[in-house]
Specification:
Nucleotidyltransferase, domain 5, Ubiquitin-like (UB roll), 644 residues, 23% strand, homodimer, alpha/beta
Chain lengths: 644, 644
């Protein structure tokens, strides 16, 4: 078999001819980024063939210049019979994410959270005095434990954990039978998940985990003290395997890659668990339960469930409501018998992050008022309803707000331009950069600002095209392509100018259109108008940097009085927290999930019509955006005055 | 840290000073035999120090000669600060065991076995037609499976297996929803343990496993055909870590060695599983359940439970009645969700092999007659009772019958002398050898024959001492030690004479005395005489080679009419088979186990008295052995006549 050597690491692997280089790299343990999941469309896995011949047909995603230098896309290029030497470029710096401060809960209405008196977690710790071993009584250690527990709990507990049995003899003898048992409660059953010598009832911990496509967040909860004692988030290690859920599904098509994705997200979660445990001075084995929320694809990937059918008609997931699992089954490095529970998913593209998220809203309360919940991420999910009905849908927003498909797009991390002001008169931009460094690129909130400001000042039209009739130093027209220089070469980290093209603008328009039209369609489905909506909740990490005015200006969010909007932050994490500390909130979540009707928008005939109108700034139907109309008029008047 | 290199393999390891060489060898992956479990008493782990200095005080178990050549006992010799080179002698050949033929069930009364119509195993397979995925019905693959099963079984099954969920999507789509589900049944609950495409209801398999201290046996049962389709046995890979349960407990004192013992017995079981699966043309993943029986120590070691407290007063095991486990938890390489159930143990030294074994006897029936069950192995276990009572005890017979502690003792394998005849006049032996080769040593049944024949002919006295008054070419007296040449150097495999010493005879006497006195004491405890016993069952692989007359002559078995004895063979395996194929037999076994009273003989004051009498041939109280008295008189008369 031909051998493939990767430089600079020197890792090598033998693979059969026909293997693609992405797969060869995977087998050699060499990390390559494949934002599109290995579909040959994102161009991020470009590598240079130093020696040997590969089978590669040029792909649109790789521009011509690097091809001349012997560059190919690893996901498309295939090994022939020859040995190969492949040069891997330096990995793009992910940068340190701009994550929420550790304990920032972001919740507009903390009164929705379970109060300390409402704490009623899924595990309980009991201090027991177990009778000493006696000759000839015919009782094993387990028998004596079971008797003591029956006395304490009124019923015989289930003890079927080898982990507990393996330590039982020592634990019972360490403090003369004085032990603390950790019990998992389910319906009318107690299961022993841990035994510890002495009184450890005050050391009782749980986790809330949000498993996002882009980021993963973990909270460590001290159940005895009824408070969060540490929280951490980080990028999902699956990122190099695709930026959005569709790319991940594509990447997972081969079994070893599905397993790779599973290991990557587990690695991320376990790294964060170690971090919060260290920060809270807790041993991971003291953590007795975890509540996890993720979208349907992330949930499938975390458990190694084949996600392929999620993207094939009729979009049927393997599982929506997961049984509770033991942590060692899923691979979480906490107490091996810890009870894991997953927020239920509603459909292929509305997952547990949403059923967790709506717990943080009045949608989970007995309200008459109709409320709207919008989660903006690489996917958009929308829920609308009140005490009488709940309806949900999803739209594939795409990764544009996360920097995907945008030439100089980056995630909201150090070096990202996150806020932009445009001088209406000159079209020149001023901006702020996360971390106050030279800019590396522009993130979603920056793009929204830029788009809104250029539009208001008339530098781009409602279709997102640059005005070819006015001269602007920042805008250059080359043939049919126009682009906007956001930062000149001298002012950037890389020494290359940051340029926004009309293609980038189109991508942003498609993303905002899909979210807006999904909300609009869902309401139309129900015969409701936007005016009937009491509150609009915005969830998702992205929302934190969002300028509401600009988001309405471009038509991403509906033009409603500003006070109806509530930003929730990481509602998926908060909902996980609620279900982790309270069995009542978990029951509420399951009941909510049963009530929601999931609609598949892809198959709705009216969708394209709604979407097409929303592809404009802010919309073809300007009457939907009265405040933008007013603002437009005002700004353009001001612009004209200043240009006089 | 000093480095230790082992020759001839060349494996090396760095260990801190003070580490013993047995531990260093373990860490280096070098196999050393330690029949005594690393207590410095058996001498089997002798190695030669080629270079470097070890800390070693001569031990009685190592005779002087090899010490002069730089030999030490690896279990006692400790690493100092110096690097070491250690020569490991060629491993003693275990030899291929003389195991029971594959399908030999050895059962005297096959009518006790469940009939095919009584087959009612712990798992069931159901052919289902699962509804196809539909758009907008909000049902996952799991939901559709659950619905189909509810319709089939009348109640909702538990599906909490990731293994099943991971294959579910493909299985449901492989044959248009036509699938076979394997369900584990427990009380009033169904748990899904496998899903397969199409109709596989006729491929339904279970295992019966006997986990013995010396040998492990596995039967593969075709549940659909109601028959055993393959069986295999082999030595327990734990053998190099101690010959009897006490040595294994000693060996397991350090956590890594407990883990090593667990891995060794698992390796043995999994090897046998692969063998029976191959022989039966079954994929191991098709095996849906296993019934395991082992003594209490073996059960603890197989599950990684610390056995130390089994040998410390008050001899309390961690567990007697094990919960059912899933095979992946215990490490059996069959279907990962296969249901494992263990025969319940009665006490530290009467285990699941006995509660399985008595299922093969009238003790498990509603009999008025009082029966006695004796299992002779490295440990002896005795059960006596009828429908009104059941009582059990154990005695540490020691490994003499397996060749342990006997200078030329070997196990009943190729090259072992298994039957002996002694010419009463000359004292010369003729013998048969397993495998018809030159002899390597003598096994238990051969030793019993030899002892009985030498005693009957008057060459040894009732105390097991050679007659110093009569000249016999085969007996040599050196000072206070006398020995018997069983085979001269020229007639053996090794070219060294096979010699039986008075110390060997003492070991055999101690072993037979402990078994006899335990039976006698148990009966006395109950106020019963031997005459009240209806049937005497002999279990254990050892019994297969046993000559009943000779066993009674030496006083191992009570002197009762020969027709009351019934040899059961591997009753532990047979009982496992019964509980594997029938839930009714499993319930019967659990009910039996609850009925048995376990007595600890070590603490009974009358034990030493009984034991001391039984140390003689056949006993100090000859009235207990009338037929031996008759035989003695006859043989000695015959001997005198022929020497005239």
């Amino acid at each position: 078999m031909p051998k493939v050597i990767f430089r600079p690491s020197g890792h090598g692997v033998q693979v059969p001819p026909g293997t693609d280089l992405l797969e060869a790299a995977r087998q050699a343990g060499v990390e390559l980024e494949a934002a599109c999941g290995g579909e040959g469309t994102c161009g991020k896995c470009a590598v240079r063939v130093v020696s040997g011949q590969v089978d590669f047909t040029s792909s649109g995603a790789l521009c011509d210049a690097p091809l001349l230098e012997g560059c190919v896309l690893a996901c498309v290029a295939r090994v022939t019979g020859e040995d190969l030497t492949i040069e891997v470029p330096e990995p793009a710096q992910l940068g340190r994410g701009q994550f929420a401060p550790e304990n920032e809960l972001h919740l507009v209405r903390p009164e929705l959270l379970p109060s300390p008196s409402e704490f009623d977690p899924h595990t309980t710790k009991r201090l027991l005095q177990v009778a000493p071993p006696q000759p000839e009584d015919g009782l094993s250690d387990l028998d004596r434990l079971t008797r003591a527990l029956k006395q304490e709990c009124g019923k015989e507990p289930v003890v079927d954990s080898l982990f507990c049995l393996r330590k039982l003899a020592e634990v019972l003898r360490a403090d003369n039978g004085r032990i603390t048992a950790t019990l998992a409660r389910a319906q009318d059953e107690y299961r022993v998940i841990d035994v510890q010598p002495g009184d450890t009832t005050l050391r009782h911990f749980a986790l809330a985990i949000d498993v996002g496509t882009t980021t993963v967040a973990v909270q460590l909860i001290d159940l005895a003290a009824a408070q969060v004692i540490a929280a951490q988030s980080d990028y999902n290690d699956q990122m190099p395997c695709g930026l959005d859920v569709i790319s991940r599904i594509n990447y997972a098509r081969h079994q070893p890659r599905l397993e790779e994705l599973r290991r990557r997200v587990l690695r991320t979660i376990n790294r964060l668990i170690r971090a919060v445990a260290a920060s809270g001075a807790v041993d991971p084995s003291e953590i007795a339960s975890a509540s996890l929320s993720g979208n349907t694809v992330m949930t499938h990937l975390l458990l190694g469930l084949k996600p392929e059918y999620l993207r094939l008609d009729p979009y049927t997931p393997t599982v929506l409501h997961l049984p509770s699992l033991r942590s060692h089954e899923a691979g979480l490095e906490i107490n091996p018998e810890a009870k894991l529970q997953f927020s239920p998913c509603l459909g292929s593209y509305v997952g547990g992050d949403i059923t967790a998220g709506i717990l943080c809203t009045d949608l989970a309360r007995d309200a008459e008022e109709i409320n709207l919940f919008i989660d903006i991420g690489t996917n958009g999910e929308i829920v609308v309803g009140n005490r009488h009905f709940l309806m949900a849908c999803a739209c594939s927003a795409g990764p544009a707000f996360e920097g995907g498909g945008i030439e100089c797009g980056v995630r909201a991390a150090t070096g990202a331009i996150d806020k932009v002001q445009v001088d209406p008169a000159t079209g020149a931009a001023t901006y702020s950069v996360i971390g106050d460094t030279l800019p590396r690129g522009i993130c979603g909130s920056g793009m929204i600002d830029l788009l809104a400001q250029l539009f208001l000042a008339g530098w781009i039209d409602a279709a997102g095209k640059f005005d070819r009739g006015r001269s602007c130093p920042a805008i250059c027209h080359e043939g049919r392509r126009a682009s906007y220089v956001l930062a000149p070469a001298a002012a950037t980290a890389s020494g290359r100018a940051l340029v926004v093209t009309e293609i980038d603008l189109e991508n942003i328009l498609r993303t905002k259109a899909s979210i807006y039209s999904a909300s609009a369609l869902l309401l139309r489905h129900l015969g409701l108008s936007l005016d009937s909506i009491g509150r609009i909740y915005i969830a998702g990490g992205f929302g934190r940097f969002l300028d509401l005015e600009n988001a309405i200006t471009i038509g991403l969010l509906p033009d409603r009085p500003r006070e109806v909007f509530q930003y929730l932050g990481n509602a998926s994490l908060m909902g996980s927290y609620m279900t982790a500390v309270s069995r009542e909130f978990r029951r509420r979540q399951l009941a909510l999930a049963r009530r929601v009707t999931y609609v598949e928008l892809n198959t709705a005939p009216a969708y394209m019509e709604q979407y097409t109108g929303a592809l404009f700034l802010p919309h073809t139907d300007l009457a939907l955006f009265p405040s933008v109309q007013t603002r437009l008029a005002a700004t353009r008047v001001a612009g004209k005055q200043s240009s006089l």
